[in-house]
Specification:
The complex is a heterodimer of chains A (about 325) and B (about 450).
Chain A lengths: L1 H10 L23 E5 L11 E5 L13 E10 L16 E4 L12 H13 L10 E2 L3 E6 L1 E5 L2 E5 L1 E10 L5 E11 L13 H11 L25 H5 L7 H5 L14 H7 L19 H12 L17
Parallel strand pairs in A: 2-10
Antiparallel strand pairs in A: 1-3, 3-5, 3-6, 4-9, 7-8, 9-10
Helix pairs in contact in A: 3-7
Chain B lengths: L4 H6 L32 E7 L9 E3 L3 H9 L14 E2 L9 E3 L4 H8 L3 E8 L7 H10 L10 H9 L7 E3 L15 E3 L17 H11 L11 H20 L16 H17 L10 E6 L14 H23 L1 H5 L1 E6 L23 E6 L6 E4 L17 E2 H12 L22
Parallel strand pairs in B: 1-8, 1-9, 5-11, 5-12, 6-7, 6-8
Antiparallel strand pairs in B: 2-4, 3-4, 5-10, 9-10
Helix pairs in contact in B: 3-9, 6-7, 8-9
Classes of the chains: A alpha+beta (about 325), B alpha/beta (about 450).
Chain lengths: ~325, ~450
């Protein structure tokens, strides 16, 4: 069964062409082989790699051709025969967890982590001590570059993600591991590349970058907010539209009131300047948006909140 | 003393012990199909697909207008029609559109061809709640309106059995709410090999263990000197110790069709099969267990759901293989045992028709109606309900349900558990018409 799975993955191109390069992940040598990372090879530091460090769009490590995000393949293998850890004996393994795997309401929740944990929990474990190098399906780990906005432009900065895992078995068997994932900007690339308008920039550099459009949030219009910030829907659902929030609507606000930033509930939500009954600051549970992002939205609203055209002095310039 | 309170409490889960009055049972309306007489001592295995299984990629439109809409909604995770020829099932009974199981479900397709699988499409409830937790509660309690109180199966247990019968087992580390009711006792056994007490020279046999427990809880020889609470705890403890002794004799090392699968679901179903095999071999059926809940998680496929590989296809393959191997095990033990067994899947919701990303990252978000399966020798195989139309979505752009999930429960209670009636008291909102798949 497990070999069949591996064959299927090879057929569909999901397994990297390079030979397995396990990364033990840290911890006592006597248990560090119980779970090891495999997939896109860790490459940093070169002497003892424990991090995947990749430049955006480097085809040697980044599977995703989209600028601004690196995609790595990661799986976890259990009971790995590891010549560098000769004292590590295979064990019966039963449970596996990844930090920030759940729940959806956790602001640090990461669906890629959930994919990895589910693959181990429901498709791979339990593993018997007699089994060797039993691996989860490959999970894709998407690591977006950080975007820093400044007046008249923007730059990419390094993006990071760390996978922290724990596998457990009977009688206190435990191996905790960590794999750092780093995406570095490609030389000469900027977040303004390909941006078609100020609103397109807001879409990419504010809504998407701040996780507003992630699954279970504003990727679709759903209760209670009934507001989609998805690219083809956001403008129509924001501009001139009455908020679903009763207090804000009663105060006469609009989600975005073109030309009137002071009456735009979107700004209240992202700045956290809210009256009683107007709910929580967004993005909920995450860091406040930087002043430059708020300025970008403010200037766009002040300019009439157009769907097209470059109208904000702080945003990307027209190409 | 080796039998400590902590050790006793951590060995199992026992619900409360009060008994409510049985409700009146009336004759229910029969749905379509030919109803079989309910078997004596029926066995029910509820398989929960945790996370919200995507019904639209489980039973898939193959041709026609719905197929075009399906491909439009799912450019990345849509299963190509060319991959569906080996898993075709009957057409939708309402729209007559061609349907197929996901290609990973070849084992279930074989059972379908043998007339042992009912595919029930478009199952859901009014005003779908998109929270895992709340929607699970709704499915567990069979009540889309009121806050969770009791499990629907727990209510059935308390109206049909004595609390000392212990006929239900949750093969998990915690007791699923579906079995919970004030007068229903259920065992939660994650692993049979762990469901036992350690050897203790001071309490070598069952009688000595019971005495130790009575001592632990201060039960006196004179009943007048013992509180009602102490007696209740001691009685529950005695019952549990007896059951631990019974279950300790269940062999698990036998050669099962589930063994090669190696998955968590297969291992849990092996434990169910082991219990049934043990009871079937003895006239007294020592464990008496006939109702089981097992869980397969991982269906919350917001990302990397996959069309032919990745997450959901692998899960569906595991599910299909495990159910087929489980039923093959039972058939190998005895035809009578297999005939008495019904497997029913359920999930808290389906998923949205539209995928949420592109390429290998694509997944689906929480949705509404979904599909479930009823599998067994006594099933009237075929397609029931109706696949929700992709051009008639609800206000949240989710699939509309056509078959209230309580109709499935009513069918099970009525046609399988042999408790015909209006099911008022068991199913809030009753009566519900049955579906005819039994």
């Amino acid at each position: 069964m497990r070999y069949g799975l591996l064959v299927a993955m090879v057929v569909f191109g999901l397994v990297p062409a390079s030979a397995p390069a396990f990364t033990a992940g840290g911890g006592p040598a006597s248990t560090d082989c119980l779970a090891e990372f495999d997939g896109t090879a860790a490459n940093h530091p070169p002497a003892a790699p424990r991090e995947i460090r990749c430049t955006d769009n480097d085809s040697g490590c980044d599977d995703d051709p989209t600028p601004g995000v690196c995609q790595f393949q990661v799986r976890v293998c259990f009971n790995v025969p590891d010549p560098q850890r000769p004292t590590c004996a295979p064990a019966d393994l039963e449970t596996f967890s990844v930090d920030n795997e759940q729940p959806d309401t956790n602001p640090l929740h990461d669906f890629d982590f959930q994919t990895l944990e589910d693959g181990a929990t429901f498709l791979t474990l339990p593993v018997d001590h007699s089994e060797s190098a039993v691996c989860t399906p490959l999970a894709l780990m998407n690591v977006p570059l950080t975007i820093k906005l400044f007046p008249g432009g923007s730059i990419y900065k390094r993006g990071k993600k760390t996978i922290r895992t724990a596998v457990r078995g009977p009688n206190g068997i435990f191996d905790g591991d960590r794999l750092k994932l780093t995406c570095q900007p490609a030389e000469g690339s900027t977040p303004c590349d390909g941006v078609t308008s100020t609103f397109d920039q807001i879409q990419r550099h504010v809504f998407q970058a701040a996780s507003c459009t992630r699954s279970t949030c504003h990727n679709i219009s759903q209760s209670p907010h009934l507001l989609s910030l998805a690219p083809l829907e956001a403008h129509g659902e924001l501009v001139g539209v009455l908020p679903t929030n009763f207090a804000a609507a009663a105060a006469g606000k609009r989600r975005v009131d073109p030309g009137n930033a002071g009456n735009s509930f979107l700004l209240d939500k992202i700045t956290g300047v809210l009256e009683a009954g107007e709910g929580e600051r967004m993005p909920r549970g995450l860091k406040r948006l930087k002043p430059t992002a708020v300025d970008l939205v403010t200037q766009w609203i002040a300019a009439g909140a157009p769907a097209t055209g470059f109208v904000a002095a702080v945003g990307c310039p027209a190409p | 003393m080796a039998l400590t309170r902590r050790r006793f409490l951590t060995r199992s889960a026992l619900a409360g012990a009060a008994i409510t009055a049985p409700h009146p049972l009336l004759r229910a309306m029969l749905g379509p199909g030919t109803a079989h007489a309910a078997p004596s001592n029926p066995i029910l295995v509820l398989v929960q697909l945790e996370g919200g299984n995507d019904g639209l990629n489980t039973v898939i439109p193959v041709a026609g207008a719905q197929r075009g809409l399906y491909e439009t909604a799912r450019p990345s995770i849509g299963v190509p029609a060319v991959n569906l020829s080996a898993t075709l099932i009957d057409n939708d009974p309402v729209t007559h559109d061609a349907l197929a199981l996901h290609p990973a479900m070849t084992a279930l397709k074989t059972l379908y061809d043998a007339g042992k699988v009912a595919v029930i499409n478009g199952v859901g409830y009014p005003n779908q709640n998109l929270s895992h937790f709340r929607s699970e509660e709704i499915w567990f309690g069979a009540d889309p309106v009121a806050p969770f109180g009791d499990g629907w199966f727990g209510r059935y247990l308390e109206t049909t059995f004595s609390p000392s019968d212990l006929v239900a087992v949750d093969v998990d580390s915690t007791l699923n709410p579906i079995f919970v009711a004030p007068g229903a006792n259920t065992l939660a056994i994650v692993r049979l090999s762990d469901f036992r007490l350690p050897d203790d020279p001071l309490a070598p046999d069952l009688a000595a263990k019971k005495l130790a427990l009575d001592t632990l809880y201060g039960v006196e020889a004179n009943p007048l000197e013992t509180s009602g609470l102490q007696r209740t705890i001691a009685a529950s403890g005695d019952l549990l110790l007896s059951k631990i002794a019974d279950y300790a004799l269940v062999p698990t090392g036998w050669s099962s069709n589930l063994d090669p699968l190696g998955t968590s679901l297969a291992r849990r179903l092996k434990q169910v099969a082991s219990i049934l095999r043990y009871d079937a071999g003895l006239p007294t059926a020592p464990t008496g267990a006939r109702f089981f809940h097992v869980r397969l998680g991982g269906f919350d496929t917001h990302t990397q759901q996959g069309a032919l590989t990745q997450r959901q296809p692998l899960l569906l393959g595991r599910l299909s293989d495990a159910i087929a191997a489980f039923l093959a095990d039972l058939a190998g033990i005895s035809t009578a045992l297999a005939d008495r067994t019904l497997v029913v899947t359920f999930s808290e919701f389906g998923r949205r028709p539209a995928e949420n990303d592109s390429g290998a990252n694509a997944g689906t978000d929480h949705g509404a109606s979904s599909v479930l399966f009823a599998v067994g020798n006594a099933v009237n195989g075929g397609v029931y309900g109706r696949v929700p139309a992709l051009d008639d979505l609800d206000s949240s752009k989710n699939l509309k349900f056509h078959t209230d999930f309580r109709r499935v429960y009513a069918t099970i209670i009525d046609q399988w558990l042999g408790a015909p009636g209006d099911h008022v008291g068991l199913l809030p909102g009753a009566p519900f018409s049955t579906l005819g798949f039994l």
